[in-house]
Specification:
Length: about 180
């Protein structure tokens, strides 16, 4: 039995879960999320607890057991508290501004880069930080990754868009390498 998969998920007050054929819907104060799970997995809601079990004992079903439980637990946390990723702009002249619902990034290109609003995601800009928040953890992470791809941090000076707390491995430049 999967260590993670066999743990029950407790539903806090204000969060409801309904299971229909192959789909679970979790709703709470921050929104409503749906997830279609595989037929090898069985999800049961008992009062204020969600239990995830597997129907078959195949290797594929075993691999889905813990994954499904983790996804549902992230959905419960997302509709209750939300998820957040914080990105940081590092570099001289690099800046971010909020323009309506969109973000405008000036990160060393000859033109500003516009990040359009994505439904279900809140984008906020404070100083040289971008805060991505939302109920869906997968969508928050994907949006943050797409913003980071605009100008990933480079290894020589460390300039670019990075996650707060991310360590950038630095390389020695030509002058240092040659021993000058």
């Amino acid at each position: 039995m999967s260590k993670i998969g066999k743990m029950p998920i407790s539903l806090p007050t204000g969060v409801t879960a309904t299971v229909t054929s192959g789909e679970i819907e979790i709703s709470g104060p921050k929104g409503k999320l749906k997830f279609q799970f595989r037929p090898e997995i069985k999800v049961v809601v008992n009062g204020s607890e969600i239990k995830v079990d597997r129907i078959s004992e195949t290797k594929f079903a075993k691999s889905l057991h813990g994954l499904t439980r983790s996804v549902i637990a992230n959905m419960v946390k997302g509709v209750l508290d939300g998820h957040e990723k914080v990105l940081e702009l590092v570099g001289v002249g690099y800046k971010v501004a909020k323009q309506g619902e969109n973000l405008v990034l000036n990160v060393g290109y000859s033109h500003p880069v516009v990040i359009n609003h994505i439904p279900g995601i809140n984008l906020d800009a404070k100083e040289n930080k971008i805060i991505v928040t939302g109920a869906d953890k997968i969508l928050v992470g994907e949006t943050a990754a797409r913003i980071r791809r605009v100008r990933p941090p480079e290894p020589y000076k460390g300039k670019g868009i990075k996650y707060v707390g991310e360590y950038i491995r630095r390389k020695a430049g030509k002058a240092l390498k040659a021993g000058v």
